[in-house]
UniProtKB/TrEMBL annotation:
Originating gene: mutS2
Taxonomy of the source species: Bacteria, Pseudomonadati, Bacteroidota, Sphingobacteriia, Sphingobacteriales
Pfam family, one: MutS_V
GO biological process, one term: rescue of stalled ribosome
Enzyme class per UniProt: hydrolase
Name of the protein in question: Endonuclease MutS2
């Protein structure tokens, strides 16, 4: 399907597979990765992509996936198949751990039934046979060793050995003490020689102690003797150990016989572990390159949106600087002819298209927008690099022509053709026309593809031929540097003279070179450069206009917001002023009515009436007319609202909440609501009257801070939590740490696959109050714990 076979290597697909292998936990998983090849069946590709996408979502958004123990079971099963053979303790222990992992995985998906339908297919109809685990656990302990009570006889033998060893130790200690008292022993304590406990005796005294000499010191001054009395006891222990070993083998053979009927099921479990390891590795790699699942199409088409080369993303030198690629290949725009300067990104553009196509058809997610659309091609033909061969007597150009011959014979409408530096390797006078003829032949076959070239005749041919489309890699001819942006619709200049001038090639040489090229070619190249310059100016102008439009839109939004705020405040203040004015008028009416009533009660006495009228005049002078009162109230309210001080109580207009001003910074207010702090613009609050303010503000701030710091725990444990829940909890603790002024925060997230750690650290990078973060010391948790400094 891919021709030639080394094209996959030249596109970088083997490097991709190596990166995925590093994510595998088992050798069988790595073997599966090695077998990855582009597929042509739509349903198969779709299933592989969806499985990887579901596992990626699982790793990011769901609980921790059980991957504690991945041991290969296939070799163990093959060994157990042989009648009379038996598995060792450590082999049974591996089977036990692997089975526990298998059952944990099955339970994990059963608890989430329907959430990951494509992953559930991996273990569909696979039963849980707990009897195997019970049989093994009756014999093997949690350390992987045979239990002493695995059988009654084994327990008896073990106890006899323990008693005999105690007798030996007791007896030899007594003999050693007597030898020490007699002055026979050398410096040192009891020692082991040839697996036997011996007493160090001075060489001149070795005949005084009856026993077997097992060894001597290097100087010959010390002999290591096993006393005769102990010798018989040790032989008894040795016999018991042989008997114990026979019983252990009998137990293991019996256990192997019990497991043998379940070997086909164990092989199925092995297959499940291998597939899970394989899909998990693909999902982890997808997270590393920030990959998404594209829309899969049954048509022979490609529409890459913000696509990036995965190997460039992983390259530390290019990390964060990879320019995204946007390219569309379909029925109308079948072949893209890319031109432009050297080192401008033409080859990377073509390789990105080829590599991402191979990745998709191999079931791998790609670093592009989810709206990217990728079709399925039956064949992928690529001519990249120099394939000259001494053995085959092929020059560089001959190798290119051999591929062109194959392409023109076997390509069709479901073939993706990738050709780098089309037509090079021979005299341009002849290479250009041959390349044009080949391109014309391929175009007639309705192939899809990307071709890079410097030949002007191919650019002209592409502009005049249906199905072919010129494209260029943008070049900043002022800064004399490539921009790595693909522009569809026009060819690009090679900028040969400009690049040579920047490098420092002599002016006389450049002038001589310009005189040697054809007048027509010079005009074409100059025209392309002028077009590029004008295009760049138009592009820069468009960017500036867009920026200005965004600024105007922002100003308009602020104006409308301010206008709305003023209208709202105007209504509130007017309403309050009217109410106060009405209250004043009401009080005035009461005063007049009281005066009239008093005059009546005085029976219109002149002196009394004069006095009451005088009092009424004085009272009315103190009361302003309704309109003046309203205006005065409005003026006072506006003044009061604009003159806020620390300690004032205010009402937040948006939600009606009341808060106290703790700090004022230009147009921003820091408000306290109980133990919570919030920042509001001055225009978003109204001052409240009639509350005790100024004295309590600072004490409130101090008491809040002291109380909050005392209650605050600068350590958070996020292990086992889903990514979204973990980030929510982290945000709460970070906000509180900033509020109380805490200098650092200890975040425990564990190691595992590193997914949770990655998302936590990405979040910390975006959190403005975090100055830096680092791993805990290796002895205290290493990269399983992050310290964030605020």
């Amino acid at each position: 399907m891919v021709y030639p076979l080394n094209a996959i290597d030249k596109l970088g697909f083997y490097e991709i597979k190596d990166k995925i292998k590093q994510k595998c936990l088992s050798e069988s998983g790595r073997e599966l990765v090695e077998k990855i090849q582009p597929q042509t069946r739509f349903d198969q590709i779709d299933r592989f992509l969806r499985q990887t996408s579901e596992f990626k979502d699982l790793l990011v958004n769901d609980g921790a996936f059980p991957v504690e123990n991945f041991f290969p079971l296939k070799s163990i099963v093959e060994k157990a198949r042989v009648e009379g053979a038996f598995l060792l303790e450590e082999e049974f222990f591996r089977v036990l751990l692997s089975l526990k992992t298998v059952y944990a995985i099955i339970r994990y998906f059963n608890e989430r039934e329907g959430l990951y339908p494509n992953l559930e297919v991996l273990f569909e109809h696979l039963p849980i046979e707990k009897g195997i685990i019970r049989d093994i656990e009756t014999v093997i302990d949690e350390r992987g060793k045979l239990k002493n009570n695995a059988s009654r006889l084994l327990l008896e033998i073990t106890q006899q050995i323990q008693r005999a060893e105690q007798d030996v130790l007791k007896r030899i200690n007594s003999i050693f003490k007597n030898a020490q008292d007699s002055g026979w022993t050398a410096d040192g304590n009891l020692t082991v020689r040839d697996g036997r406990l011996c007493i160090p005796i001075l060489a001149e005294n070795k005949r005084k102690l009856k026993g077997l000499i097992h060894d001597e010191s290097a100087t010959g001054q010390t002999a290591y003797i096993e006393p005769e009395e102990v010798f018989q006891l040790n032989n008894k222990i040795r016999d018991l150990e042989f008997e114990r070993r026979r019983e252990v083998i009998r137990i293991l053979v019996e256990l192997t016989d019990k497991v043998r009927p379940h070997l086909p099921l164990l092989l199925s479990y092995h297959g499940l572990l291998t597939k899970v390891d394989f899909v998990r590795a693909k999902a982890l790699f997808a997270l590393d390159i920030e990959a998404e699942m594209p829309e899969l199409s049954k048509e022979a088409e490609i529409n890459l949106i913000n696509a990036r080369h995965p190997l460039l993303i992983l390259n530390e030198h290019h990390k964060g600087t990879v320019v995204p690629l946007n390219i569309q290949i379909d029925q109308l725009q079948r072949v893209i002819v890319v031109s432009g300067p050297n080192a401008g990104g033409k080859s990377v553009c073509m390789k990105t298209v080829g590599l991402l196509q191979i990745m998709v058809q191999s079931g791998l997610l790609i670093p592009a927008e989810p709206t990217t659309k990728v079709g399925v091609f039956k064949q992928i033909f690529a001519d990249i690099g120099d394939d000259q061969s001494i053995e085959s007597d092929l020059s560089t150009y001959s190798a290119h022509l051999s591929k062109m011959k194959y392409f023109t014979e076997f390509a069709n409408g479901r073939t993706l053709v990738l050709i780098d530096e089309f037509g090079t390797g021979t005299d341009p006078l002849f290479g250009g026309p041959i390349a044009e003829a080949v391109l014309e032949s391929l175009n007639k076959k309705q192939i899809r593809g990307v071709v890079t070239t410097h030949y002007s005749n191919l650019k002209v041919f592409a502009s005049n031929t249906t199905g072919l489309e010129n494209a260029s890699m943008l070049f900043d001819n002022r800064e004399m540097r490539p921009m790595y942006i693909l522009q569809i619709g026009k060819p690009g200049s090679s900028y040969a003279f400009e690049i040579a001038q920047k490098i420092g090639l002599g002016k006389d040489i450049l002038e001589a070179a310009k005189g040697k090229i054809g007048v027509q070619q010079k005009k074409v190249d100059t025209l392309l450069i002028d077009l590029e310059r004008e295009k760049k100016e138009v592009f820069d102008t468009k960017v500036a206009i867009n920026k200005r439009e965004k600024e105007l839109e922002s100003l308009k939004s602020e104006y409308l917001e301010l206008q709305s705020y003023l209208e709202e405040n105007k209504r509130v203040i007017l309403k309050k002023a009217k109410e106060e004015a009405q209250e004043i008028i009401k009080n005035s009416n009461k005063l007049i009515e009281n005066t009239v009533a008093q005059i009546k009660s005085a029976k219109a006495d002149k002196e009394k009436t004069r006095e009451l009228r005088s009092n009424l005049d004085q009272a009315l002078k103190a009361v302003l007319p309704k309109e003046q009162a309203a205006k005065q109230v409005i003026k006072e309210k506006i003044t009061e609202s604009s003159e806020l001080t620390v300690g004032d109580w205010v009402q937040i207009i948006d939600n009606g909440a009341e808060a106290q001003v703790v700090e004022i910074a230009k147009n921003n207010l820091i408000l306290a609501m109980g133990e919570l702090r919030t920042v509001q613009k001055r225009k978003n609050v109204l001052k409240l009257e009639g509350r005790e303010n100024k004295k309590s503000a600072k004490s409130l701030s101090k008491s809040l801070s002291a109380g909050t710091v005392a209650d605050f725990n600068p350590e958070i444990d996020l292990r086992g939590m889903r990514t979204e829940d973990a980030l929510n909890e982290l945000e709460k603790v970070l906000d509180r740490a900033v509020m109380v002024g805490y200098p650092s925060l200890k975040i425990i997230h564990g190691k595992g696959d590193g997914i949770l750690r990655k998302f936590i650290r990405d979040y910390l990078r975006k959190y403005s109050h975090v100055s830096r973060f680092e791993d805990e010391h290796q002895d205290r948790g290493g990269d399983g714990i992050t310290y964030a400094y605020l």
